């Protein structure tokens, strides 16, 4: 109950923060490797390796098993067939420890995409994704990263409702542009 109350204060504080991600479109995405969980199984997630397969949707969320983060995880899980059809990888990142994410990856991510543990906030800080009012938590920030490490899209909003819609649109725009490039060669 205490965690829910604390998160309620964090969420309310986050509503007054401007909806701007600190890393801007066109910037080079910082590379990282982090311990992650998919379907309750731990593995080492490497951004560089994931980008070899196509664009990556990297989304930060404050804490596993909280209301908004559960909604967002369900939304991403439901959209995974669309991301996969476009060749995109999705990875969520929070400050949670891996044992928490082992459970979250099964119950809320529905074993459809991995979530990475960043308990020391190294990845969160490198992407300027810390919640300003409580920097020990990630802000709800989504990035779409192209295979060349360039950031194609950024979006920060504590409301989880638009993250999937906007990241999917950015991945589709990138995918369609790749088709246009290949058809002119």
What descriptors fit this protein?
185 residues; globular; 6 helices; Glutaredoxin
Mind explaining what this structure looks like?
The protein is α+β, with helices and mostly antiparallel strands. The chain has one domain: Glutaredoxin. The chain contains six helices and nine strands; from the N terminus they run H-E-E-H-E-H-E-H-E-H-E-E-E-E-H. Helix 3 runs parallel beside helix 6. It starts with a helix and ends with a helix.
- The total strand number stands at 9
Residue ranges: pLDDT <50 for 5 or more in a row?
Answer: 1-19
The first-level CATH class is given as: Alpha Beta
Rounded to an integer in angstroms, the radius of gyration calculated over CA atoms is 16 Å
Distance N to C terminus: 59 Å
Order of helices and strands: HEEHEHEHEHEEEEH
What's this, in brief?
With 185 residues, the protein is an alpha+beta fold. The chain has six helices and nine strands; from the N terminus they run H-E-E-H-E-H-E-H-E-H-E-E-E-E-H.
Question: What's the structural blueprint in terms of helices and strands?
Answer:
Blueprint: H1 2-14, E1 33-38, E2 41-46, H2 47-51, E3 56-60, H3 67-85, E4 89-94, H4 98-107, E5 115-117, H5 122-126, E6 130-131, E7 134-138, E8 141-145, E9 151-156, H6 163-183
Parallel strand pairs: 3-4, 4-5
Antiparallel strand pairs: 1-2, 1-5, 3-8, 6-7, 8-9
Helix pairs in contact: 3-6
């Amino acid at each position: 109950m205490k965690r829910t109350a604390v998160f309620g204060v964090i969420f309310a504080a986050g509503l007054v923060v401007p909806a701007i991600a600190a890393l801007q479109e066109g910037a080079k995405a910082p590379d990282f490797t982090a311990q992650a969980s998919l379907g309750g199984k731990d593995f080492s997630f490497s951004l560089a390796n994931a980008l070899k397969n196509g664009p990556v949707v990297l989304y930060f969320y404050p804490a596993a098993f909280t209301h908004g983060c559960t909604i967002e995880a369900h939304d991403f899980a439901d959209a995974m067939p669309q991301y996969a059809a476009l060749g995109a990888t999705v990875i969520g990142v929070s400050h949670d420890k891996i044992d928490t994410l082992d459970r979250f990856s099964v119950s809320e991510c529905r074993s459809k995409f991995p979530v990475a543990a960043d308990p020391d906030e190294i990845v969160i800080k490198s992407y300027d994704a810390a919640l300003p009012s409580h920097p020990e938590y990630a802000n709800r920030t989504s990035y779409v990263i192209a295979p060349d490490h360039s950031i194609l899209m950024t979006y920060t909003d504590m409301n989880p409702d638009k993250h999937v819609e906007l990241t999917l649109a950015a991945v589709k725009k990138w995918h369609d542009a790749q088709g246009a490039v290949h058809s002119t060669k």
